[in-house]
Amino acid sequence: MAGVLGRGVAGVAWILHAAFIGFLVLGGFLAWAWPLLLVVHVGVAAWGLWIVRTRRPCPLTSLENAGRRRAGLPQLPPEGFIPHYLEGRLYPRTWTRGVEAAVGAVVVVSWVGAGVLLL
């Protein structure tokens, strides 16, 4: 039973992580239709920037690892979710800094667009 619960915790953490990253990248554009989301998106972007700049572990990675341990599955690498699931799969590892810069640019563009639409 512990294994099933652990897999569930790990799966929920994975879904939350993926949703967080998706909202980080695209949430500013959602604010074009729902302006109150811009406040939430600023917080999410600040957290994402802090994680990227400091290379600190994300609490969702810790949660996923706790579930994985309980299920008897291998842990994520110390680098965390993005290096494990995205780097080398979605884009080459050598592109990491460029991808981070591109995500930052997308966020800025979404905020400029939100500013134009909301003012």
Features:
119 residues, mainly alpha, 5 helices, globular, DUF2784 domain-containing protein, membrane, transmembrane helix, DUF2784, transmembrane
Describe the structure.
This protein has 119 residues and is mostly helical. It has one domain. It is built from 5 helices and no strands. Helix 1 (2-33) crosses helix 2 (37-54). It is globular and about 55 Å long. The chain crosses the membrane at residues 7-26, 32-52, 99-118. This is DUF2784 domain-containing protein. It comes from Nocardioides nanhaiensis. Keywords: Membrane, Transmembrane, Transmembrane helix.
Shape: globular
Low-confidence stretches: none
Main pleated sheet: none
Helix content bin: over 70%
So how many helices?
5
Q: How would you spell out the order of helices and strands?
A: HHHHH
The figure for the number of domains is: 1
Give me the Rg, rounded. 16 Å
- The structural class is mainly alpha
How far the N terminus sits from the C terminus, by CA atoms, comes to 54 Å
Oligomeric state of shown chains? single chain
Overall pLDDT metric: 94
Walk me through the topology.
Elements: H1 2-33, H2 37-54, H3 59-71, H4 81-85, H5 96-118
How would you briefly describe this protein structure?
Helices cover 76% and strands 0% of the residues. The relative contact order is 0.18.
